[in-house]
Amino acid sequence: MPAKTVNDIVALCKRRGFIFTGSEIYGGLGGAYDYGPYGVELMKNIKNAWWNAMIYSRNDIEGLDAALISNRLMWKYSGHEGSFSDPLVECKKCGARMRQDKMIDPTKCDNCGSTEISAPREYQLMMGLSIGATADGAINAYLRPETATTTYVNFKNVLDSKPHKLPFGIAQIGKAFRNEISPRNFVFRMREFEQAEMQYFVRPGDDETQHEQWKKIRMDWWINVLGIPAEKLRFTPHDKLAHYAKAAFDIEYEFPDGFDEVEGIHNRQDFDLGSHTKSQNEFKINANVLENKDSTTKLSYSDPQTGDNFIPFVIETAMGVNRAMLAVMIQAYTDEQLPDGKSRTVLKLKPKLAPVKAAVIPLARNVPELLDTANNIENELRKLAIGRIELENSGNIGKNYRRHDEIGTPVCITVDHQTLEDNTVTLRHRDTMAQERVNIKDIPKRVLEIINS
Predict the structure, then answer these.
(1) Residue range 225-268, pLDDT digits in tens
(2) pTM for this one?
(3) Helix residue ranges per DSSP H, 319-430
(4) Which residue range forms the structural domain that includes residue 401?
(5) Residue 256, domain member (yes or no)
(6) Do both 360 and 278 map to the same domain?
């Protein structure tokens, strides 16, 4: 059974070093969290799984890592500066500020129930900056609110340096920043978060087919790579399309309080490259774009066979990495009743996603021979370069097993007195708690089998 409430995950994250409240010793900061030793590993493993699927398993997508701070003109022509906002209302009685479109009842305060609600006003979501030695406080740059736009403006750079025929894509993983009115649900909605986005450039006319293909590719990834059951996921079409979109679907996961978005797959037509290109009047741009007199580059594609020069359409896949991690943890979280009447909490993560791949545990910490053997096994496993390997030397085997159950370690390797007699150790499996004796020389092979299962 997955976690029944997000609070189960919040408690586990603090206790076991996955996620901490940002600036906690000073009272915290809404919508900001710090990732601890195991949170860093789980996030990295999810990002690596995405990068492997997008880049290393294909030959038609290139990687990018663009700057977090960008020229304000980029966000002017993308439409963010003029329209990237949420409707903000304020309760005149208690002073609470809320997004009108997220209120339980738009006529009543979510906090105190008062009906004395102000009229909505638009609240700018981008975080503006004043940079440079001569800056006078006026906003002349922004922290990016997404990674997508920084991909579009690099379209020509990537295409010129690494030529591709259509269709091809550009992918990047990175931080984004939004001045959220009401951050909520732990790491689900934050002011600083991480995205994994891929922009796939296609010929006009091929966009609908490509959109359907990417919907299937991405849903399969959630099921087969992250281990989320199909019945916990669904596609939801957008009720109202954004001005740039021809079609838009969200992959939603069933969180404890209901389904919510974890990834979007959008047909953005030619809006993005059309918005940022030089000489817009030379191209037949389908989308409604702002007139751009500042761009210095034509973001078009020249067909090597026909000679046609046109603005490609874009199919976007946009995943929230923090949301993916939260969904994975909720789904993997399991409370089990044991035959002896006790219980255990275990994270039944896919082995490749686990923060720690294997733990080596000497049965007694005051026996040098056991510790030396454990150290040797740890060093051999590190040579596999499969991720974090931990040596536990507390001497309490039961507590060590429980700790590694909670952080999702797939296998624990116990070095005991029998090891000194016959060179065998006990492999204890996380999900079943089954144990097997394995010769020391066979440990690397056996651990690899478990991690790749």
Answers:
(1) 999 999 999 999 999 888 889 999 999 999 999 999 999 999 99
(2) 0.90
(3) 321-332, 368-382, 397-407, 417-422
(4) 354-451
(5) yes
(6) no
